[in-house]
Design a protein that fits this description.
Layout (H helix, E strand, L loop, with lengths): L1 H9 L17 H6 L4 H18 L4 E5 L3 E3 L12 E11 L5 E15 L5 H14 L11 H11 L3 E2 L2 E3 L2 H8 L3 H10 L6 E3 L3 H4 L5 H14 L4
Helix pairs in contact: 3-4, 6-7, 6-9
Amino acid sequence: MDSVREWAASKKFDYRFMGDELFDPLDAETLQQTRRQIVVATDLARLFHVQQALVQGYQTVIWCDADFLIFHPQGFDPVSASYALGREVWVQNDQKGRLKSYVRVHNAFLLFRRDNPFLAFYLDTAQRLVKLNTGRMPPQFIGPKLLSALHNICHCPVQETAGMLSPLLIQGMLHDKPAPVDLFNKHSPQSPAAANLCASSVAKGDLSDQEMQQLIARLLDLRSLR
């Protein structure tokens, strides 16, 4: 979070940290529906706050998740499009143990400018999908899954320098295993200057706290994944 705050200050942007007040725009029914999947609630709530900030008079609003690290601030300039999503190149092993990369988009970074054509549609669609759902929702239901489906159809603008690092990629970086890193670089349109570090992977046991701290220190030192 310090990296985002410092980057915002360097750009002379206002910075706003959000705690549990993030969920204030959600009605009781939605909170009940998402009680077992808080990620879905956060994915929806952020859209209300972005919309509100634009109504309040901001020309541009940028959302960054708490585990989004800007490690090369000089190379991280917002794109000029009216809105933009983050770039996900997810590296993992498939069921046969083969190394694969999946190129998608993510919402750990979002950019919306005033009068953009996408936010109202995305917010309405996300709300309807949540209300229509009667079962357990996957974590990425209205986040990367919905956005990647839309992107595959209509080619949304992407902030290519706003990446995402999978646990397998992170371990490759830390333990001198070049194959995941090479595959990531091969399928990344641009080298990231910032990335979502998937801090939830620590809670899941895919990475340790020590490995996450090592990753952050390495990225801030190298300022590049290449």
